[in-house]
Amino acid sequence: MDTDKYVDEIYAKVQARDPDQAEFHQAVYEVLQSLKLLLREEPKYTSVLSRLVEPERVILFRVPWVDDEGNIQVNRGMRVQFNSAIGPYKGGLRFHPSVNLSIIKFLGFEQIFKNSLSGLPIGGGKGGSDFDPKGRSDGEVMRFCQSFMTELAHHIGKDTDVPAGDIGVGSREIGYLFGQFKRITKAFVAGVLTGKDTSYGGSLMRPEATGYGTVYFAEEMLKQEGDSLRDKKLAVSGSGNVAQFAVEKANQLGARCLTMSDSSGYIFDKDGIDPEKLQYVKELKNVRRGRIYEYVERYKGAEFFEGKRPWEVPCDFALPCATQNEIDRSDAEHLVANGCRGISEGANMPTTPDAIEILKGNGILIGPAKAANAGGVATSALEMSQNSQRLSWTREEVDSRLRNIMVNIYHSAANAAERVGKPGDLITGANVAGFLKVADAMLAHGAV
Question: Which residue among the candidates 114, 126, 249, 285 is catalytic per the annotation?
């Protein structure tokens, strides 16, 4: 069997079946290209590919809700339950105007491999809505979340599908969603959602986990080079949960974070975003829900660059923590020219294929998202474990487990890259390592 030709045929079918889903195509293409190397030596795995790229279930529904003026608004809700071969579907909910089926499918597909890499028994899923919580009152957000959960509740459960937060879905939204689930089911099922407040079953360290994990992965990448993050200059994008805690952990490890951003542009602080300044960003974003340019009004030595991304700033390491495809070819050229040594992806698929080729061609270390940002879902799975046992672990215990998981993910990816003859290629290694566990389970389950 010509396995390369078969893989290309699978990808062509994906494109033909859903021609308008560019983000999903991009995610599938990257994984399938990596798998060609494995399948040439182990063709038995080809039989799972046609099922791997097709979700087990896609749920679309309308979400009617009433705004503060008494008008009925309607958004679209969705949940993609992609693969449950190794455990219940697990993945976040995203509330953002850009949400469509292509984005949710790409995120759900990535989640399969990310969850597998974590070493924990969780499958891949994702969901969300085109609802935008920005500028909405707490009452409007609550009414939307209650309407959203009224439908979603029919499709989730602690042993079936366990959503969490993502862009636009923080502890406030999770609280409203959980409250409505409890109201509908008339039962307190703590394990049905993760990212909960610690007052009702949440795990310590869950808010920090994705950002901390991204930095732990970067530290492990540099450790293999005989180096560390200490005294390194970092460019960070985003100013939400992932970016905030990536900056926090980087500061703790002795790095200096120079930038943060949002959709309005980025701020550059040559002196570094120290703990005091970071606390201001947290209050600005999490409480006042303001814009990042307000930072330069508070800290006069900083600069704001409207409508731009931070990748033009000279740095030793980059942490993209905002959204998909935020580093393009031009950005990659800037990073190379300015001496960047590596990238650890805190966002999902933040680097375009063209950019990846440039970075690889110049020997830049790349920690791919499905490995580098797996700390969030890993800690969600730890939250599920605590809920099942009706226990609450200490912050130190969760942090220790998280760090060990990130180190293990790095070595799983590195070893898989060696296995297929691509030493040092963590993108290929992460795809192969994540695939193997899922594929073995799918083969064991038969044609389902």
Answer: 126
